[in-house]
Design a protein that fits this description.
The protein is built from ten helices and two strands, in the order H-H-H-H-H-H-H-H-E-E-H-H. It is mainly alpha-helical. The protein has a two-stranded antiparallel sheet.
Length: 216
């Protein structure tokens, strides 16, 4: 019975994780608005299209973490706790995404439109790559141990940021990044009726798809 429950929860977590990766087309779209848009109208069209879906990835990420915590608390504590500062950086990247969509076009915002657009680029690039690096530590390991009470003992004062020093962790990070850009381009091509913008997206899609295969 216990083994069956484990299999059930792993299937559920895998499904949520897969949906989260699929929904990262929002982050991918955010990284495309500067490279494929020829004017401010194109930029607004792109950010409006993905902005309608921005909460999907945030919700799926929280749901994934919650499912891990509910099903396998020790796995959650060690795997997520082992990359503590990386996950904190990821959370920050997603917080500035929500703020950016809210204030980017508001009049007299004190940071300016360009700053919020930079925040969206950070969320779509750094946020996604950091998620890949954090998940990669599930395979490459992190520098901590558990004592007899299952408490984490840190072997590195960086508390998870040492994952950034392992070049192999970046493979999954860049795989997710280009996967998100491919998904973002396909989503925008399907939702924006503009011939010039679609042509630019198609050209960019070929490059990102090739890089995705390489890193994968």
């Amino acid at each position: 019975m216990y083994e069956a429950l484990q299999i059930y929860w792993w299937c559920l977590i895998s499904l949520i994780g897969g949906l989260f990766v699929f929904m990262m087309f929002v982050q991918g779209g955010q990284t495309l608005f500067k490279s494929v848009s020829d004017n401010e109208v194109h930029k607004d069209m792109i950010l409006s299209a993905v902005g309608k879906k921005w909460e999907l990835t945030f919700t799926a990420l929280v749901l994934f973490g919650g499912a891990c915590f509910a099903a396998f608390p020790l796995f959650y504590a060690t795997s997520f706790g082992g990359a503590y500062w990386v996950w904190m950086a990821i959370l920050f990247c997603f917080i500035i995404q929500a703020v950016s969509y809210e204030y980017r076009k508001k009049e007299a915002n004190f940071l300016g439109q360009g700053t919020y657009e930079l925040f969206l680029m950070i969320n779509g690039s750094l946020g996604v790559i950091l998620i890949g690096i954090a998940v990669a530590t599930f395979f490459s390991g992190s520098e901590f141990t558990l004592d007899s009470n299952n408490f984490v003992k840190w072997d590195n004062p960086l508390r998870g940021l040492e994952a950034l020093k392992n070049p192999y962790n970046y493979l999954l990070g860049f795989t997710l990044f280009f996967q998100a850009r491919v998904g973002g381009a396909l989503y925008l091509m399907n939702n924006i009726n503009d011939a010039k913008l679609r042509a630019n997206l198609k050209t960019n899609l070929k490059k990102d798809a090739l890089l995705l295969v390489v890193f994968l």
